[in-house]
């Protein structure tokens, strides 16, 4: 009886160990591929909002007080910024993902909605386009997209957060 | 000939979804579009075939008392394997399937086949059974997905169908549509087979593959004793 | 106040908008199998809430402090399912020994929960959604409450359904699914309610 119990435990443990070992080996193969794909995706999303991307540096950790919508800030070609934002205000059915490119003069160069779950087509191209060339003070002047007021508001608030983050970073680096 | 029968059994006669009514969760969730359905079906087929083979190989080694945990470990291992391979080489599909890919672990078709078939048959038969059941699952998912995507979204595998554009029924791609289409499909199967299928007549413990190890199941027993009383 | 609002929002979202059973199709088996009678439905619902909370309380720290720092995030699925299975067993033994009255009312549902995809689903979703510990617990509570609500409502619907006489082909499983579809349709109407209640 006792022998049986011992045998059960040993078999289960051995199976667990073998499975784990096999998975670790596979992970060794796939992890670099996954990482590379992720990197490529990041680069592609940054290229979409900034004209020339030669060097990318991620700011980590983000300075204290950075708004919670800001996920990652990249410094592009050591002068421009690209900010990845995620905001939940879009009618709760999912996060709204935004990537915004901001020039060294604090003007928006390009904006892209990377994920958006509402059924209404929030003018994937046109609406974000309204913000190009604007700065921290002028973005508030853009009207909300008709029928999608909540999402427009969240979108604008997220862009404002991006500027806040950049100011914090520059303030920190100047010190 | 007998081998062929093991394979075709799962496709139609004992189709896991439409006849045995198992794996309801992924069937409802992943039949929104044809591409989703095929990806989910093939991922589950891969896991089912591999786990069936391994469990059949180990059937003499695994002690009866810990067989369920052992099956779960083997199945979870293959699911993780599929997850990693998909994330690396098919990242778009990986994202589409989301949490449902990991949930193949608790898909009762897979545990059910391990318990009902693989631990009693040899490797070759178990592999064929896995393939048959897996393709049967894929086929059923595909049938659901074709109905939902064509009527609900006026498209097939992402390609627009122009003449249906003005007659979309969007609710079919939403959750309520999943229940509705599945219900109607099973009713259709019942009608065609004159009530011979589905084998499972209601969602009770009988016919659930977990019933055998759901520990003599006090819960199921209460129902029975009530019926007797 | 801010935190409280956020918690309430998570609960409302997971109970009404993203209801696990009716809009994410997780935990369909018990939803359709154990909803014939109201007392069984509510018992199952309470047991699921209990296990979801417990599972989250254990799996979240495991993922955050054990798997992630060691680069073993890929073991998530296998570790979680084993932990949940072991946990359910353990709880059953403890309940049986020390609180037999509770075991009598909840115990019968516990074995059914081990392979319930809602429990595994909620633990994985908490990690993918990037919730912290408190948020994870609240979200599990919300999902569990949503499950309970769906079970209880559907038990009511089914009692009426049993008395009805659908066409022959629809008897049994098909009509149950169609009824579930209508309940799900009712919940579909909640989309957007959270933003309306809580604002941005």
Verbal overview:
The complex is a heterotrimer of chains A (about 180), B (about 230) and C (about 200). With about 180 residues, chain A is α+β, with helices and mostly antiparallel strands. Chain A has one domain. Chain A is built from three helices and five strands, in the order H-E-E-E-E-E-H-H. Chain A has helices spanning about 1-50, 125-130, 150-175, and strands at about 55-60, 70-75, 80-85, 95-100, 110-115. In chain A, strands 1-2-3-4-5 form a five-stranded antiparallel sheet, with helices on both faces. Chain B has one domain. Chain B has ten helices and two strands. A two-stranded antiparallel sheet of chain B has the order 1-2. In chain B, helix 3 packs parallel to helix 7, helix 4 crosses helix 5 (about 90-95) and helix 7 runs antiparallel to helix 8. Chain B is globular and about 60 Å long. Chain C has about 200 residues and is mainly alpha-helical. Chain C has one domain. Helix content of chain C is about 75%, strand content about 0%. Chain C has ten helices and no strands. Chain C has helices spanning about 1-15, 30-35, 40-65, 75-100, 100-105, 110-115, 115-130, 135-165, 175-190, 195-200. Chain C is globular. Chain C starts with a helix and ends with a helix. The relative contact order of chain C is 0.19. Chains in contact: A-B, A-C, B-C. The interface of A and B includes residues 4, 16, 19 and 30 of A.
Q: How is the topology of this model organized?
A:
The complex is a heterotrimer of chains A (175), B (229) and C (200).
Chain A: H1 2-49, E1 56-58, E2 70-76, E3 80-87, E4 96-102, E5 108-115, H2 126-129, H3 149-174
Antiparallel strand pairs in A: 1-2, 2-3, 3-4, 4-5
Chain B: H1 2-13, H2 24-29, H3 34-57, H4 67-89, H5 91-97, H6 99-102, H7 108-118, H8 123-153, E1 155-156, E2 159-160, H9 175-192, H10 218-228
Antiparallel strand pairs in B: 1-2
Helix pairs in contact in B: 1-8, 3-4, 3-7, 3-8, 4-5, 4-7, 7-8
Chain C: H1 2-17, H2 28-33, H3 38-67, H4 76-98, H5 100-106, H6 110-113, H7 117-128, H8 133-163, H9 173-188, H10 193-198
Helix pairs in contact in C: 1-8, 3-4, 3-7, 3-8, 4-5, 4-7, 7-8, 8-9
């Amino acid at each position: 009886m006792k022998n049986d119990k011992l045998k059960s435990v040993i078999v289960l443990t051995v199976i667990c160990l073998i499975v784990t070992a096999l998975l670790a080996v596979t992970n060794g193969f796939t992890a670099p591929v996954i990482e590379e794909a992720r990197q490529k995706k990041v680069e592609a999303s940054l290229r979409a909002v900034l004209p020339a991307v030669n060097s990318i540096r991620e700011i980590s950790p983000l300075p204290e007080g950075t708004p919670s919508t800001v996920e990652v800030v990249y410094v592009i070609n050591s002068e421009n910024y690209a900010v990845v934002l995620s905001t939940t205000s879009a009618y709760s059915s999912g996060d709204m993902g935004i990537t915004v490119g901001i020039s060294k003069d604090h003007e928006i160069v390009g904006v892209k909605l990377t994920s958006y779950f509402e059924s209404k087509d929030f003018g994937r191209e046109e609406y974000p386009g309204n913000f190009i060339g604007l700065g921290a003070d002028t973005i508030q002047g853009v009207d909300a997209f008709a029928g999608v007021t909540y999402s427009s508001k969240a979108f604008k608030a997220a862009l404002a957060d991006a500027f806040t983050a950049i100011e914090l970073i520059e303030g920190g680096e100047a010190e | 000939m007998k081998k062929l029968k093991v394979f075709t059994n799962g496709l139609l006669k004992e189709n896991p979804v439409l006849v045995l009514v198992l794996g309801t969760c992924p069937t409802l969730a992943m039949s929104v579009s044809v591409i989703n359905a095929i990806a989910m079906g093939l991922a589950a087929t891969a896991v089912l075939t591999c786990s069936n083979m391994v469990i059949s190989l180990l059937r003499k080694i695994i002690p009866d008392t810990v067989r369920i945990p052992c099956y779960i470990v083997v199945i979870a291992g293959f699911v993780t394997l599929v997850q990693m391979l998909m994330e690396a080489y098919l990242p778009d599909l990986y994202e589409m399937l989301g949490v449902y890919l990991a949930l193949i672990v608790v898909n009762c078709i897979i545990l059910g086949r391990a318990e009902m078939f693989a631990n009693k048959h040899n490797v070759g038969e178990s592999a064929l059974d896995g393939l048959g059941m897996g393709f049967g699952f894929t086929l059923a998912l595909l049938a659901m997905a074709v109905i939902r995507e064509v009527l609900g979204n006026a498209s097939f595998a992402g390609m627009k169908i122009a003449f249906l554009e003005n007659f979309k029924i969007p609710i079919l791609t939403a959750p309520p549509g999943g229940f509705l289409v599945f219900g109607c499909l099973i009713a259709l199967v019942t009608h065609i087979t004159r009530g011979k299928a589905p084998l499972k007549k209601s969602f009770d413990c009988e016919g659930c593959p977990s019933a055998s190890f759901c520990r003599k199941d006090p819960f199921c027993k209460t129902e029975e004793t009530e019926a007797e009383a | 106040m801010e935190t409280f609002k956020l918690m309430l929002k998570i609960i409302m979202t997971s109970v009404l908008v993203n209801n696990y059973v009716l809009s994410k199709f997780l935990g369909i088996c018990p939803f359709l199998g154990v909803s014939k009678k109201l007392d069984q439905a509510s018992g199952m619902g309470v047991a699921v809430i209990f296990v979801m909370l417990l599972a989250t309380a254990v799996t979240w720290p495991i993922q955050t402090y054990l798997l992630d720092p060691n680069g073993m995030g890929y073991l998530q699925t296998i570790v979680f399912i084993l932990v949940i299975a072991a946990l359910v067993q353990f709880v059953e033994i403890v309940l049986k020994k020390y609180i037999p009255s509770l075991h009598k009312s909840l115990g019968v549902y516990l074995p059914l929960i081990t392979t319930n995809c809602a429990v595994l689903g909620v633990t994985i979703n908490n990690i993918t959604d990037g919730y912290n510990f408190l948020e994870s617990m609240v979200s599990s509570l919300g999902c569990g409450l949503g499950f309970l609500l769906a079970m209880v409502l559907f038990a009511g619907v089914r009692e009426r359904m049993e008395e009805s006489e659908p066409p022959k082909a629809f008897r049994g499983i098909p009509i149950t699914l169609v009824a579930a579809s209508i309940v799900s349709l009712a919940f579909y109407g909640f989309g957007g309610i959270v933003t309306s209640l809580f604002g941005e």
